[in-house]
Amino acid sequence: MRTMKKMSKYLAAALAIMMCLGLSACGVKFDAAGYTKSALDANYQGKYEEYADFRGISVDEAKKEIEDNKVQLAKQQLVTMGITDDETVNTYLENTKGIEQLAKYDVKGSEKQKDGSYVIKIEVQPSNVYTTLQENSAAVAQEMVAAGKDVTDSSVFMELLIESINRSVAANEYGEAQTIEVKVTKGSDDTYGLEQSEIDKIEEAMFPQS
After folding, report:
1. Residues in Cβ contact with 43 at an 8 Å cutoff, skipping those fewer than 6 apart
2. Exposure class string for 93-128: b at 16+ Cβ within 10 A, else e
3. In the β-sheet with 178-186, what is the strand arrangement from edge to edge?
4. Residue 208, CB-side half-sphere exposure with 13 Å CA sphere
5. 191 vs 173: CA distance, rounded Å
6. Are 198 and 181 in contact (CB under 8 A)?
7. How far from 168 is each of 10, 21, 133, 159, 164, CA to CA, in Å?
8. Which residue has the higher pLDDT, 39 or 187?
9. What total number of domains does the chain contain?
């Protein structure tokens, strides 16, 4: 299903955007590895304490910052399918947490470069959740059509999407661990962050699309 393929790519993009928003911190005695791990933990595992410490904000503020961004991203996508009510958006977000929590990573350390940037080594185990989402969505669609449901209806499509996600999460398998390197660079405002290409590298390693 073309729509499901578009949705799976959106989910990966949403996580990347959230990470991008989170990865900036003052450069004084900057613990690049620790901060990177805290941002990953906050965005994927819902662990906000260390992230809040690095940012110099409260845990509640850190949680609100990340969750508000997730809501906005979900609304932007779901409105294209005619879905605008908050209850459905929240249901969708609750189910996509299953994908986020599949992220397996281990930040191994960082090495400062001559240009002031840091190279971060991260060991990841790739999840096949996105590669099975297409197959599961097709199977669920067939089941729904056989049951007399109209899968073009927005509420039925949301049911299809959530069931497909849940099946893919339940059947998730991991590939062989691999170590990737990403660069954290300093911006003109004396904060550090990951370029989009580096975020894409982490996301593709943890959640390959093919």
Report:
1. 15, 18, 19, 22, 66, 100
2. bebbebbbebbebebeebeeeeeebbebebebbbbb
3. 104-112, 118-125, 178-186, 192-194
4. 13
5. 37
6. no
7. 16, 28, 6, 14, 6
8. 39
9. 1
Question: Tens digit of pLDDT for each residue in 77-117?
Answer: 788 777 888 888 888 888 888 999 999 999 999 999 998 89
Place of tokens 């294209």: 80
- Domain with 103, as residue range(s), is 2-206
DSSP element (H, E) containing 180: strand 178-186
Cα gap 134→187, rounded to integer Å: 39
* 177 and 123 Cβ atoms separated by less than 8 Å: yes
Report the pLDDT value the prediction gives residue 173, as an integer from 0 to 100: 97
Tokens coding 132 = 């099975």
